[in-house]
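User: Hey, quick favor. My workstation is busy. Could you predict this chain's structure for me?
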Amino acid sequence: MIANEGSEGKAVPTHSSGLAPGRYAVFVACLLALAGCNPHMYDEVPALHDAKPAEVSGSWLGYDRTHVVLRPDGKADIRLLDGQEWDFDDRWRLSGTGTWKLTDRRTGWNDGQHVRLTLTARTGVAARAPEPGERLGPPADGSRAPDAYTWTFELERDDKEKLRLYFFFGDPDSRSTYTLEREVP
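Assistant: No problem, here it is.
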């Protein structure tokens, strides 16, 4: 321990953790974990650069009956798609029609390609049932659901090189992912 001489001539510690440097790092990591911080929240999101529009168009399925159809002409049909990031916490689920495009313009969490899906004509709103232990916010009666909405999907490939679309939901730092996978005929 390093000490300085205080005003009364006594040794005053300059730090008081009492932990060796290696243990100090483990201690800090544990504190962050207990505080609810994700130590991987600033890790880079994998970027995909080789997707083709023909590979993206098609029928996609997700959580609890989510169904999105991305047509080759850039039109989209959306059924029961939840909001992304903080909007997910409002528990609304949108249905309707819109447009989509594959872009490599930086719009999401990485510098690779993204799918921008925009609901332009809302035809329905539903409320997602809360998960066990989920804190309830305002009522999910659709009153806070937007009439138009844009999602930004990140792209990744699974171990078989099949394309998946996903976005982060809830607190973006938590890295919880909402994934759409191609519907198998």
